[in-house]
Design a protein that fits this description.
Number of domains: 2
Helix content: over 70%
Strand content: under 5%
Number of helices: 5
Shape: flat
Structural class: mainly alpha
Number of strands: 0
Radius of gyration: 17 Å
Length: about 120
């Protein structure tokens, strides 16, 4: 149980730290957010849990295919905000569009024989 609490604390602290840094310097915050910290943490926790790097490699290979659809959020959200749509509606639409992009990417990959 202590191990899970440690994982939770470390992961939470990183997210809060990035949020606080972004308040002071949006470029540094964006840079830290752009670094795949969640993926790095997930791969690290997978390795620590299993002592098997193959699960982290498989995870990493799947992430590569999902990078492009994840850009949907970062493209749609600012466009909607600039059009005067509120934060929460803009974020909701961007999230739904991103989920749709993930779904379409997975379907497209399956048509080419690539199973995620």
């Amino acid at each position: 149980m202590a191990y899970y609490i440690t994982k939770l604390i470390i992961t939470t602290l990183l997210i809060v730290l990035i949020s606080e840094i972004t308040k002071r310097n949006s470029l540094v915050g964006a840079l830290l957010a752009a670094v795949p910290l969640v993926s790095i943490l997930a791969m690290t926790w997978m390795y620590v849990d299993t002592n098997n790097s193959n699960t982290a490699v498989e995870f990493s290979n799947k992430i590569i295919w999902l990078i492009a659809p994840s850009m949907t959020l970062f493209l749609i959200f600012p466009v909607l905000i600039k059009k005067g749509i509120g934060f929460y509606p803009s974020m909701s639409v961007a999230i739904i569009a991103t989920i749709t992009a993930y779904y379409l990417m997975i379907l497209m990959l399956e048509k080419f024989g690539i199973k995620l």
